[in-house]
Design brief:
Mean pLDDT of chain A: 95
Shape of chain B: flat
Strand content of chain A: 15-25%
Low-confidence stretches of chain A: none
Order of helices and strands of chain A: HEEEEHEEHEHHHEEEEHHEH
Mean pLDDT of chain B: 90
CATH superfamily of the largest domain in chain A: Bira Bifunctional Protein, Domain 2
Oligomer: heterodimer
Number of domains of chain A: 2
Number of helices of chain A: 9
Largest interface: A-B, 29 and 23 residues
Distance between the termini of chain A: 15 Å
């Protein structure tokens, strides 16, 4: 093995070119504007589970979300972006610390409408290998009930921790959401039906990130968020975007407690101007290629994966 | 003693997990979109050879296990210990217990060099070379006309191991055996 040589065959690069072309034609036809935003930002991401990479006095973005929302606040309308994003320490069979994301926002849409568009686009992008892909819609609670026999809204923290410890074979000293992550990733995701686009929504309110909260039909407070899984792999993450500047600032302050990172003041100022009601989603394009090419390691779709970069 | 952080985990790494020396076989990085990151690690216990899975939080670290591999020649056994001598010129001798020897006892032959694995200076396992040459102690007589292809029969080797051999093999012959699969390769 020579480290100078590419990790992906030329055919994978051709498939990537075709993928980007299909995406660009799709959005062009729907008058969604392609944008570029800075890779090097003054403020780092606030999410405590994502570690940004520092470059001099600036931070490589971990997602184009903050800058794209400022465009939305400025009234630029429906926008999308294909860009590299950077996350420290995320390396594995399905992760590369530098990877390609498609992120787009639809103004005036609900996250449910956006889920339909995500399904349509993924069916189009994956058509070369999977024709007539069907969709399965589940709430977070339904997914856990069906694939882990767990009633998430009524289960105690103690019971959830016990279930998680069994799966992890260790006490990882996690909080409720941390153990739920173990159950989702170790038990639910591998059990989801294959060759089906699985949409999971209505996440616990404690896992809202940048999504709006709402009461569901059972009167339980949930986050208006969705994730898309395909063949046991998470492909996309979407939100009914939080538009309230005060709530956003509170979540930033809560997330950044005890760290030295500062929140993105420009985003808060933009939200104070007013973010239109909108839904947004991020889609991992390297993973779409993994599925399209029936590849098992992300290196097979990257010209030079992390160890060769 | 060195410590390995979860982002340094890789197959072949020798670490202490719950006070047990283990070797990493496979690592899967798991990261829910908006959640905690984990490393799911498949481990093999050096002592018991048991394979098991365990999840670590990203950023957790493990102490390296003080495990040493030495090339050593098998000498003899007193039925309690099996003695090996270092081939590095020190002529140092070490005894392995029956438990540490495990299945390798089937492939043990004087003057052959084995990999002896030490943990805290005690022998915890012995690994045979991929191929060993052993004599046939007992097998049914071969049948004429069966030399070309086809059938096999069991043969008991000088160590007591039983392997399937072609019908033309007779007692007293020396055979080359693949110790990984326990299969006959050829006449030696």
């Amino acid at each position: 093995m020579h480290l100078w040589s590419p990790s992906a065959p030329r055919t994978a690069l051709v498939a990537r070119q075709q993928l980007y072309r299909t995406i660009r034609e799709y959005f062009y036809a729907r008058t969604v504007l392609e944008v570029e935003t800075p890779l090097l930002a003054q403020a780092p991401v606030a999410d405590p589970n994502i570690t940004p990479i520092q470059a001099g006095q600036r931070w490589l973005h971990t997602s184009p979300e903050y800058a794209m929302k400022r465009l939305l606040c400025a009234g630029y309308g429906d926008i999308y972006q294909i860009c590299k994003v950077f996350r420290k320490g995320e390396a594995g069979k399905r992760h590369n610390p530098e990877f390609t994301m498609l992120e787009w926002y639809r103004v005036g849409w609900t996250h449910r409408q956006l889920m339909d568009e995500v399904a349509e686009l993924l069916q189009l992008l994956l058509a070369a290998r999977f024709s007539d892909l069907t969709c399965l819609h589940l709430s977070y609670a339904q997914a856990l009930a069906q694939y882990a026999q767990l009633n998430v809204h009524h289960c105690s923290d103690h019971d959830i921790a016990q279930r998680g410890q069994k799966l992890a074979n260790a006490d990882l000293a996690l909080d409720r959401d941390g153990w739920l992550d173990v159950i989702m990733s170790h038990q639910v995701e591998p059990a989801l039906p294959h060759n089906t686009l699985v949409f999971i929504d209505q996440f616990p309110a404690s896992q809202a990130a940048l999504a709006q909260l709402a009461n569901n039909e059972q009167g339980v407070l949930i986050a208006q968020r969705f994730e898309v899984f395909f063949n046991g792999m998470e492909l996309a993450n979407g939100y009914q975007e939080l538009t309230d500047a005060k709530q956003q600032l509170q979540r930033f302050q809560h997330e950044l407690q005890g760290t030295e990172r500062l929140h993105d003041a420009n985003l808060i100022a933009a939200l104070e101007q007013g973010l239109p009601e909108c839904a947004g989603v991020a889609l991992g394009l390297d993973r779409v290629l993994l599925q399209l090419l029936d590849a098992t390691h992300i290196a097979q779709v990257l010209s030079f994966a992390w160890p060769r970069a | 003693m060195a410590n390995y952080s979860s982002n340094e985990f890789k197959p072949g790494l020798r670490v202490m997990v719950d006070n047990e020396p283990c070797i990493m076989i496979d690592i899967e990085f798991v990261k829910p979109g908006k959640g905690q990151a984990f490393s799911r690690v498949k481990l093999r216990s050096i002592r018991t050879q048991r394979v098991w899975e365990r999840t670590f939080k990203s950023g957790e670290s493990l102490e390296s296990a003080d495990i040493v591999d030495r090339d050593m020649e098998y000498l003899y056994s007193d039925d309690e210990f099996w003695y090996f001598m270092a081939t590095d010129g020190t002529f140092e001798q070490l005894g392995a217990s029956r438990e540490a020897l495990g299945d390798t006892i089937k492939w043990l032959k004087e003057q052959v060099v084995y990999v002896v694995t030490l943990y805290n200076d005690a022998v915890v396992s012995v690994t045979a070379p991929n191929f060993v040459e052993l004599d046939v102690a007992e097998t049914d007589p071969g049948l004429k006309g069966d030399t070309a292809q086809g059938g096999t029969k069991p043969a008991t080797l000088s160590t007591g191991a039983v392997v399937r051999v072609p019908l033309f093999i007779v007692e007293g012959e020396t055979l080359k055996i693949d110790t990984r699969s326990g299969e006959y390769v050829s006449r030696a």
